Amino acid sequence: MKNLLLAALLLTAAGAPRAQTAPARRDVGNLTIEGIPALPPDLLARVDQYQNVRGASVADWDRDGKGLFVSTRFAEVPQIHYVAGPGADRRQITFFKEPLATVATCPDKRQNGFLYSRDQGGDENYQLYFFDLGTGSSRLLTDGKSRHVFQGWNRAGTQLAYVGNQRNGADLDLFVVDFPAKTAAPPAALLELKGGGWRVAAWADDGRQMVLQNYKSAAESELFRFDLASRQLTPLHQTAAPVAYSGVEFSRDAKGLFLVSDEGSEFQTLRYLDLASGRLTPLSAPIPWDVEGLERSRDGGQLVFSTNEGGYSKLYVLDANTRAYRPVANVPKGVIGGFKLNDDGRRLALTLASATSSADAYVLDLAGGQLTRWTTSEVGGLNPAAFVEPELVQYPTFDQVSGRPRLIPAFIYRPKNARGKVPVLLSIHGGPEGQSLPNFSALINLLVNELGVAVAVPNVRGSTGYGKTYLGLDNGPRREDSVKDIGALLDWIATQPGLDATRVAVFGGSYGGYMSLATMTNYNERMRCGIDLFGISNFATFLKNTSPYRADLRRAEYGDERDPAMLKAFEAISPIHKIKNITRPMLVYQGQNDPRVPLSESEQMVAGLKKQGTTVWYILAKDEGHSLAKKANRDYTYGAMMLFLQENLLRPGI
């Protein structure tokens, strides 16, 4: 036997009599569970060890640009810590029960602190707070009940911007408020907007104008120039065909914009827009990949941007005057999670991870090119040499491009030193406008190393990172074409000598949860079991019940259930309408406070499976939203997944 955990699981499964009736619904901590047997203590202990592989993500520089605020989890959820220099201790600053989202240091050096946002129980009704480092206290800046999203400080740090949905829950309003506030009266909206996709894309150095972006879908956004004094909103750079924008920065003199868009291109590329003439100059067109991050130095002299090249990140620096860019040569192969220039523009803080190393904070000296690691996160006592590097493959699917089969990229994680054919778990990302990257995953390493399972992670059509044509291949009535890509993956697995096509399971969260359910309804006989985390079971009820500010944004991707033709298509493809096809066991997890995929999506799926006699294990988290944010909840859920896969995927001869 290759490891002690797998041996213990096999003995538990073989030695214990099978229960004739599923365990009744009961509470375990903040979880309500149903149908799940007691989890072996040894299993939970091993899961806990993998979950104690930590990471550190850059939040912001301190007000002096010398130390870093980073996000790290040492207890239940990530909190903000301070790191004074390379290798220095991470000093914990915040100690809340909920994870922190946005963190931004106030540019006004008279204010010793940072802004942060936090929700309650995963409800995503974020409130903004200012944490005063001098007193160690927080003060609430928003109404305490609606959803608010921070949109940046002005250059001086005397004002901040945010959008909120307090007017009607569906539409966003723009607020620009003094900091500190000059009055105790609730702030009035500076601009009332229509829709839930608005954000401040850029704020000029003089504080007088902004660029607002109206996000309509992954394939379409609109830009507007906003004069703060007159409150005039003017369409900016209108185009005949829809354009998607992913980054905007004002030039130093505010006469132009550096922006990232896919106008006239398959990929998101960096351009310069002259505001007076409307002339658009391409800057990064020779790079045939998406530009993903964009950061301008405070003096406006340079920009840093990153690209996503087949899932791996590359970093570039552009001279704002000459418009010439150069690659940064010594950044290790991996995924850059975000970056931030300090005030003098000489040092870049960045988050870097790889498949075999969890995220940590690094600082790059832009002049000398030296990259210094600032944090070295704990690995739970595990041997990092055992962490698995994936193989990037491309497999053929059902349709063709230029007379040849379309190829779907996928990362394959294989157990080391495996003998014979190993079982396979398909792991499908959410979004659908998302992309699986070769980041570190404690769960994947747990599955590969402890269960001996290969994990296949495809980026099916509709994924970002491979061009806008690929992104749009699953829209509206073509939704199940992405499911056919999973069918093609099953075909490919059957051709691989080291993979066992008779023992395959599927796992996914959010839209990936829908893909897991859809895989089970379409390929049930080829699957051993499926795992669905907060997935869409019925597109019509999902669009009806998702949070109002999201509904139209999701209709742009999935289709409009109010259209009779689209409603008919939803009835044909929604897993709830094909639930009788699922005879293999299912595990379902759902956060009770989920504002995106509401609780009803999982409840109706579980009820239907139970009614028809299909084995279903169910986990309901009372203090979670669209995630598994709390470590205790993750420990139990991952432990249940491990036992579920042992019972249904690994066992031969089912």
From TrEMBL:
Q: Which InterPro entries match?
A: 6-blade_b-propeller_TolB-like (IPR011042), AB_hydrolase_fold (IPR029058), Peptidase_S9_cat (IPR001375), Peptidase_S9A (IPR002470)
Whether Cytoplasm counts among this entry's keywords is no
In the UniProt record, the signal sequence range is 1-19
Alphabetized GO MF terms: aminopeptidase activity
Q: Give all residue intervals belonging to the Peptidase S9 prolyl oligopeptidase catalytic domain.
A: 446-649
Give the highest taxon in the source lineage: Bacteria
The protein's UniProt keywords, in alphabetical order, are:
Aminopeptidase, Hydrolase, Protease, Signal
- Which protein are we looking at? Dipeptidyl aminopeptidase/acylaminoacyl peptidase
Q: What is the source species?
A: Hymenobacter caeli
